Amino acid sequence: MVAVHGDSVASGRRRALEGFVFRTLEVLRATHITPRLRRITFGGAELAGFGADRTGPNVKIYIPLPGQDRPLLPERVSSGELLWPVDDLCPVMRTYTVRRHDPDSCELDIDFVLHGHGVAGNWAAKARPGDLLGVTGPGGKTVRAADWTLLVADHAGLPAVATLLAETPQDAHGQAILAVPGPEEEQRLRYPPGFQVRWLHTGAAADPEPLIAAVRELSWPPGGTAFGWVGAESRVVRALRDHLRGERGLARQDTLCIGYWRRGMDEAEYHETHDNDRDDH
Ligand SMILES: Cc1cc2nc3c(=O)[nH]c(=O)nc-3n(C[C@H](O)[C@H](O)[C@H](O)COP(=O)(O)OP(=O)(O)OC[C@H]3O[C@@H](n4cnc5c(N)ncnc54)[C@H](O)[C@@H]3O)c2cc1C
Fold first, then answer.
1. Is 196 found in the same domain as 95?
2. What is the distance in angstroms between the CA of the first residue and the CA of the last residue of the chain?
3. Which protein residue has the closest C-alpha to ligand 1 atom 49?
4. Do 127 and 173 lie in a common domain?
5. CA distance 87 to 231
6. What pLDDT band is residue 12 in, cutting at 50, 70 and 90?
7. Does the pTM of the predicted model rise above 0.85?
């Protein structure tokens, strides 16, 4: 069995997962939404009950190590505590968005960016029907209702914005600014008539500057309440949180800015060193 250095689930994150049910899900099918975004549909008996006792936009996924045909998930012992596999056998944990969950058909979709550098992205690029993945959740925070909502995302945040827009009430108003590598990565989205959606093309290297500039230059509607949501690379999130709370004067509770990834760091390291740039707790 091969150890993945630095990727074992750290003790703080293990504590946060104590109350969750660990499920092993099966890949049912995989389709390319766009050339670099692959939708994997999961099912299996263990998906039953998902979302019944918890809500939230995200899941943690657990990817088997090389040589394993299923992730070794922690077991709940009689005391109720979780017993984790030894570090070298622990699956790699990552955070993803629930793009769709249908309890009737017992299916769950996750859209994976194929960015080419990471364990999860590479797993998704090769996933085939019958492959197994661990999942806990759902969990996490989401937008609060406001008169006008700003949604800002790069490619990794796009599945979250696509889901938010599809679930937004038809009388809602707002603006989404979405950065993808190029026009081939735009996708058809469902959104209310009072929303505007603007696409930016920021290249394969995901240049953060055009996205930051587009938000800084945006005209906001006068009056009313506003909420700002940002899900993108660390640099974008830091700059735009400052902008929303500083120049735009939004209160802390009227923003939700989460670093979805950080250039040059894997997710475990980003979480350990910067807590995904969160400051909402
Ligand atoms: C709440 C939340 C929800 C998320 N939802 C989704 C989702 O639905 N779909 C999705 O694709 N991602 C999503 N992400 C982002 C995803 O968790 C990260 O991109 C994660 O790092 C991917 O893991 P990996 O194993 O592929 O790469 P890692 O092993 O974590 O990173 C390896 C290298 O790849 C780089 N890297 C990581 N992500 C990207 C990227 N997107 N583009 C370019 N380089 C990258 C890192 O900087 C690092 O150098 C979400 C993140 C959060 C916090």
1. no
2. 38
3. 264
4. no
5. 30
6. confident
7. yes
